[in-house]
Write a structure and sequence with these properties.
The complex is a heterotrimer of chains A (about 280), B (about 170) and C (about 500). Chain A is mainly β. Chain A is built from two helices and 18 strands. In chain A, the strands form four sheets. Chain A has a five-stranded mixed beta sheet, with no helix packed on it. The longest helix of chain A has about 35 residues, at about 5-40. The N and C termini of chain A lie far apart (about 90 Å). Residues about 140-155 of chain A have low confidence and may be disordered. Helix content of chain B is about 65%, strand content about 0%. Chain C is an all-alpha fold and about 500 residues long. A three-stranded antiparallel beta sheet of chain C has the order 1-3-2. The longest helix of chain C is centred in the C-terminal third of the chain and has 35 residues, at about 330-360. The chains are: A mainly beta (about 280), B mainly alpha (about 170), C mainly alpha (about 500). Chains in contact: A-C, B-C. The interface between B and C is large, with 33 and 43 residues.
Chain lengths: ~280, ~170, ~500
């Protein structure tokens, strides 16, 4: 088939444009991420999180919220970021509606203002073990976004919280435990047994809304390792820690979770040679 | 276009009149083709008009041959400035609005014939040469016959001449 | 008013126009003045050289709309289309370039390709009444739909969701994506640019306001066209495609349906087609109810857009913004008012003004002259042209604050087209900084005054032709002039608070 040269040039230009645009987009984004990684501190394992703030329904999420799914989105709330002590955390922050401000007060991070459609990058080394709440530090609003911003409701701001859990790198667990919290039955099981020196992997799941920000889960004298300030119904949180203190310790809810849960205190028993009793 | 019909000799004028009818037939054929997908009736009418023009051409050609034999005179309507007879649409947007009717076709043909009649008639007042004057008169009469024949046909079809709308149809 | 859909016969009292376009007032033959322009336009690669980059841009916009930030002001889909393109269209392309946008529009690309199997070259042949080889079903668009009513209703539908279209990239993706699919589908089924002529909502807008443009594509000498036997502009040739807009250039007297694809410039065997510069508002003939209703709709929409998108009434904005606010009852109330105003209220008020004017002028007629009183239909349609310059200037006045307030978004999205943290040219974080917002009112008022001036001046010219007497012409115009002035004042109050 004899195709004129001009025709070939035209068709080639179209095909190149159609293929080139998404390919360029992909490679440019990869390049941006590589650069951000190169600029991040070098320590331990690198954890990259793309976090998007949404005033409606009020959450930080790891799910991409883009043009195509904006109206049909069902994003999942980001309630926990779990890393090991000494790891590097690289967070890209975006907003899809109004100005948000990301902060982790306990680690003196932020607040970092994130305007809708802009992206901020934050990186740090998680050098302290513990659970650190992150949140939005501003009342989400539309100020300064001109005609294209139509969201004017101050809504959802209060829900934009989560926990950054930094744990000591402990190796594989010796004991895996799971606890469910419900208003009817309190902590299930209510007593947990481990041996002194065990590396414990403890998963806490909430079956109760509790009051306020959900129910809590704390173990006395192990608060630096297991201190869950709030967990919403259906969410789970996993703690990994070394049971380095023998004895019998109280499990309690640190939040105002309602009488039944507050009353249904559990016990965390660490059996050891000394057999100390608390 | 380089010269006026007024500068032509009788043989050239007659040869031109033959050429004009040929070209007009071509225009009708073009319009018939152009509207063939929009309005069969209009397209057919354009085609019939083409045949009419060829018949007119044949009459004029006979006249030419009677006077000048088989000697051809190389002239075409593009060689003179004036428009002698040229069928044209009254509206650029007929196909856009798909609103061509047989009335439009008849009126286009009538305008062309009337234009030719008026043109030849106007020339009779401008020449002294008796041979040319006679030829112009004869051509004007021919065109008068064409106009009359067309008006009769329009009347048969129930269309009054002069009832057009100056191109604003909708 | 049971006049929609009726045919009218318009009487035109005017001398035969000159057959040479340059003999018309204020015409400048641009191809003669700038032969390079003629050479450019005659290239077979024109307008593909404009359409292909636009098509690729369009593709990038669609990608950005789908995968980019849903924040309108940070997405090139919204910023380039509804701020830059819209302003360029209204402020530059339409008033100074007629339908030059249609020359480069990528929407009909796939439809054209289906019919031509070519992007650049032309193919001689004999199909569908043309002298080109065309492909596809090549059916003729139904006669009943051969008007711009579909465009009118389409534009109203789009305008009903304007609050979403101009803020949410995905809404614009859906709209433009649908248009390109519809254009391709119609290209497969029907011959030529059916989509552009009868369906595309933007085309309807351009069709009306291109009448004001200072640019026109016309035959240089109508006598040359008369003598032409091939009518290649309409039928096509081995040099150019048959007019995709199905126009015959030999009698073209207005810009409305000429998409300026320039195929006729290439196909004309007599080199008789040229671009002409001309005075503002030179086309003065509206021909049908579909066209005048377009003028009503556009004027009402200019007002409604100004109120909803620029006005200080947050509640109204909420009513229009149903997808974000969810107030469906309020949204339907807003829709009802919008559609009623555009389709019934303004036409009714205009009708009363025309009727009153006719009665005023008719009183000056002597006995026996009644027969020369223009019919209501003539007056209703012909005077409708007055709404054209006024409407265009109202749209321009509406668009001025868009560009002056939001221009900085253009600078920033050039570097970050998808709002995904890119910074291609270092301008991604260019701050939002309105350009002299205090000047906006001072720009809008002269624009509106200019619209009113042209409406009245051209209205007077039309009235003179219709009535043949200055006194009657002026009398017939008085109620309409009052209405046009009232509309202008309403816009001024709206814009200046």
């Amino acid at each position: 088939m004899n195709v004129p040269r001009a025709e070939l040039i035209g068709v080639t230009a179209i095909v190149l444009g159609f293929v080139g645009a998404p390919v360029f987009s992909h490679y440019y984004e990869s390049h941006l991420e590589s650069r951000a990684i190169a600029n991040a501190p070098k320590s331990g394992k690198l954890h990259v999180y793309h976090i998007t703030g949404m005033a409606k329904p009020g959450m930080w999420t790891l799910d991409a919220v883009e043009g195509w799914n904006y109206w049909w989105r069902k994003p999942r709330r980001l309630s926990e970021i779990a890393v090991n002590k000494g790891d590097t955390v690289l967070i890209t922050l975006e907003s899809v509606d109004v100005r948000h401000a990301f902060t982790i007060p306990a680690l003196n991070i932020g607040h970092i203002e994130v305007d809708p459609g802009h992206r901020k990058i934050l990186s740090f080394v998680a050098d302290r073990a513990g659970s650190f709440p992150f949140m939005c530090a501003t009342v989400c609003s539309c100020t300064g976004h001109g005609f294209a911003c139509t969201l004017t409701k101050k809504q959802g701001h209060e829900g934009m919280t989560g926990i950054l859990t930094v744990t000591e790198p402990l190796g594989p667990p010796d004991a895996r435990l799971a606890v469910t919290i419900s208003e009817e039955k309190g902590f299930q099981p209510s007593t947990l047994h481990v041996k002194e020196g065990d590396v414990v992997e403890l998963t806490v799941t909430s079956a109760s809304n509790g009051v306020g920000q959900g129910v809590g889960f704390c173990i006395s004298e192990y608060e630096s390792k297991v201190d869950l300030q709030g967990i919403a119904k259906g969410d789970s949180r996993t703690f990994k820690f070394k049971a380095d203190k023998a004895g019998s310790f109280t499990i309690y809810s640190s939040t105002n979770a309602g009488d039944k849960i507050n009353a249904a205190n559990g016990t965390f028993v660490v059996s050891g040679t000394s057999g100390a009793n608390h | 276009m380089s010269r006026s019909i007024r500068d032509l000799q009788p043989q050239a004028v007659l040869a031109l009149a033959v050429a004009v009818e040929s070209r007009n037939a071509e225009r009708y054929a073009t319009f018939a083709h152009l509207f063939s997908t929009y309005n069969d009736e209009a397209s057919r009418l354009f085609d019939e008009m083409r045949e009419e023009e060829l018949a007119h051409r044949a009459v004029l050609l006979r006249l030419y041959r009677d006077r000048y034999g088989d000697q051809e005179y190389p002239i075409d309507e593009a060689d003179v400035d004036e428009v002698v007879e040229a069928v044209d649409l009254d509206e650029a947007e007929h196909m856009v609005f798909n609103d061509i009717t047989r009335r439009h076709v008849f009126e286009a043909a009538l305008r062309a014939e009337q234009g030719a009649r008026g043109f030849y008639a106007s020339l009779t007042g401008t020449v002294q040469d008796p041979a040319l004057l006679a030829l112009y008169r004869q051509l004007a009469e021919y065109e008068e016959d064409h106009v009359a024949a067309l008006e009769a046909r329009m009347s048969l079809a129930g269309i009054e001449s002069g009832g057009g709308n100056n191109g604003h149809h909708r | 008013m049971a006049i929609i859909g009726e045919k009218i016969e318009l009487r035109v009292i005017q001398p035969e126009p000159p057959h040479k376009q340059e003999d018309l007032p204020g015409r400048v033959d641009l191809f003669a003045k700038a032969p390079w322009l003629a050479r450019l336009v005659k290239l077979r690669s024109f307008p593909a050289m404009l359409i292909i980059p636009n098509l690729i841009m369009f593709w990038i916009f669609l990608l950005a709309g789908i995968f980019g930030s849903p924040v309108g002001s940070r997405n090139i889909m919204i910023v380039f289309i509804w701020i830059l393109w819209w302003f360029a269209l209204i402020a530059v392309l339409v008033p100074f370039g007629s339908r030059l946008w249609c020359t480069m529009c990528p929407l009909p690309f796939f439809g054209d390709w289906v019919q031509r199997h070519a992007v650049v070259t032309v193919r001689k042949g004999n199909s569908a009444g043309t002298r080109n080889q065309l492909f596809g079903r090549l059916q003729v668009w139904p006669k009943k739909l051969s008007n711009i009513w579909a465009q009118n209703i389409g534009f109203l539908c789009l305008a009903s969701f304007s609050a979403h279209l101009v803020t949410r990239p995905m809404a614009t993706v859906i709209m433009l994506g649908s248009l390109i699919v519809i254009a391709a589908g119609l290209g497969i089924l029907y011959r030529q640019r059916v989509f552009c002529n009868y369906v595309c909502p933007v085309s309807g807008f351009l069709s009306l306001y291109s009448m004001t443009s200072t640019l026109e594509l016309r035959s240089r000498d109508k006598n040359v066209c008369k003598k032409c036997t091939t009518k290649s502009c309409a039928a096509g040739s081995d040099k150019g495609w048959a007019c995709p807009w199905i126009i015959y250039m030999g009698q073209l007297e207005r810009n409305n349906y000429c998409g300026m694809c320039m195929e006729c410039v290439k196909s004309c065997p007599n080199d008789n087609i040229s671009l002409f510069w001309r005075p503002f508002c030179s086309d003065k003939v509206l021909k049908g109810y579909d066209e005048i209703w377009k003028a009503f709709i556009m004027l009402v929409l200019a007002m409604s857009y100004s109120v909803v998108l620029l006005g200080p009434w947050g509640k109204l904005k909420d009513l229009a913004n149903v997808a974000e606010v969810g107030n469906w009852r309020g949204f339907f109330a807003y829709l009802s008012v919008l559609w009623f105003s555009a389709l019934i209220a303004l036409p009714a008020v205009y009708y009363v003004a025309i009727r009153l004017g006719r009665a005023l002028a008719a009183r000056r007629m002597k006995a026996g002259q009644e027969g020369s009183i223009p019919s209501m239909k003539d007056l209703f349609i012909r005077y409708g042209y007055t709404l054209v310059p006024l409407g265009l200037m109202a749209w321009l006045a509406f668009s001025v604050p868009l560009i002056m307030v939001s221009w900085a978004y253009i600078v920033s999205v050039i570097s970050d087209p998808m709002g995904r943290g890119w910074n291609l040219f270092g301008t991604a974080n260019f701050p939002w900084s309105p350009y002299h917002p205090d000047w906006i009112g001072y720009i809008q008022i002269p624009l509106l005054m200019m619209g009113l001036y042209y409406a009245l001046i051209r209205g007077h010219e039309l009235a003179l032709k219709l009535w043949g007497d200055n006194r009657r012409a002026v009398l017939s115009l008085i109620p309409l002039a009052v209405l046009l002035t009232a509309i202008t004042i309403a816009f001024m109050r709206m814009f200046t608070g």
